[in-house]
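Two proteins, back to back. First:
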Amino acid sequence: MLSYASKRVVIGILTLLAASIIVFAVLEVVPGDPARLMLGMNATEDAVRALQDQMGFNRPLILRYFSWLGNLLTGDFGKSYTYSVPVIDLIKERIAVSLPLALISLALSTIIAIPIGIFAASRRGSTADTTAMGIAQVGVAIPNFWFALLLVYIFAVVLRLLPAGGFAGWENGFWPSIKSLILPSVALALPQASILARVTRSSLLDVLGEDYIRTARAKGLSRRKVLYHHALRNALIPVLTILGMQFSFLLAGTIIVENVFYLPGLGRLVFQAITQRDLIVVEGVVMILVATVIAVNVLVDLSYAIVDPRLWSRK
């Protein structure tokens, strides 16, 4: 188990290193002068040269990369040109919104999807199965920004039960903050729940067709016991894969939903930094998101070994 875990961690570190090279290359080696992009095309030459000197744009590319990477490892993400504050402070402030939003959305998606997937698989070919998968297909097809606007209209404008946008702030209480995240969480969770429900059903149906399942049934075990004690655990690996991908998407792909609900999260920060040409902020946020995605994938790999010990016992 230790060897299996060590290999996955090493792969994760190497992937993060490769990702840092790509992020640096894309955002630092953009066509044109990065300093002029940040200041705008109407900036004076003196202002451009001053920013180039301040941010080290005049140094050789390889030195800039290793300097940037070394600063990242020490927690120094640079200073935002737009906000004039350390980038790490902006990230800490915004992740307090994006992380709970992603976690709540993932919890809602899981709570909704897995029971529906199990229900549909246990009734394969029935009207209930067809109806459940039809609803799931609709959920996949609905754009989450359109669904978000629909939720705002129903629950904020018509019923006046939940806020239409903004974030109350954790310092103003737990419940007001959670209320601010309910609608965006549901908007994010719906398409993910639809995908997860379909994957759960397909994975369970594959397992239910195996010989050992038929043997268990032939020994007199009830259908329910076979489903929950034998089939479900063996069907979890594809489900865990999708869960890992979904968390990564929910954390990194909230730009549209956060802008719809005016949430001060990482997605909105990236959007603002791009429009303001604040490349330092974009680099820092993207690397945080990449590191989170890689860490989640490593944890998913390790969870495979817990669900199916054969994966690491063969290593």
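And the second protein:
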Amino acid sequence: MATELSPARSRLAARLATFLDSDLVWSFRHSPMAMLSAALLAIVAFTSLLAAWLMPQNPFDITQLYLDKANLPPIWVEGGQMPYLLGTDMQGRDILSAIVYGSRISLVIGVASVALSMTIGVFVGLLAGYVGGALDNFLMRIADAVMSIPTLLVAILISALFRGLLPVAYRDAAAPLILVVALALTSWVVYARMIRAATMVEAGKEYVLAARIIKVPRRRIIVRHILPNVLTAALVTATLNLGLAILAEATLSFLGVGMPSAQPSLGTLIRIGNQFFFSGTWWIVLFPALQLTLIILAVNLLGDWLRDALNPKLK
């Protein structure tokens, strides 16, 4: 068994060594901003995944909420109590725990919506760019129609439509899936247009023409030859759009058409805290807003670095 696994392990070790010696890793190691952004996102992801063990409270469990602990200020302000480091809200919910759990929801929805929109956009772009003709015109007119309407308005309409079709008892449980679909259906056009243009360029190159001459199936040409050469640009765009997706989810939740109060994302926490901002409980809205700002800033900085690192014109 060991002899069977050794070649595979050797190939894996060789690929890992090649990756660690690549220009991308070298650029990452020499970019303090990229390393700081990656470290911040890693901390947010780590604490979000292990929230049940790290946080003093589960904000989704009503049995852990105590009204006599409501509206406690942060620990460094007079009246603050342990273990509520950042204070509590009007329901006795620990702000730090709510932020960590809310960050997990925002990250999952953001990553899932970007992955789905990229998948749809890459598929449509490859199909339109390679096949061309009437199919290309039809798909691009759909893309034009989607782009002609403001993104948030389309997301609100899609979210309202799905919520209206579902029974009331299932709306809160299906809220994350609805948000993922709503955000993906409004942002796939960016990937489709970019992949279409790149596919049209690649389709005219000699290696594709040679594959056509020797009767390589169309599906194999698209998947094995064109897709690897156009996917890098889509991945860079996905990284840059992750921050926009998280912000869009927060905006929808802030407007009341996103995550419910029983499963608050960062946008929901900001909406709830904003209602009590002028009553003196400033910490309810301030700390979730800071967390959202840091996440989006880190994602954007990491995306900017990745775009520059993969740009051959800058090398």
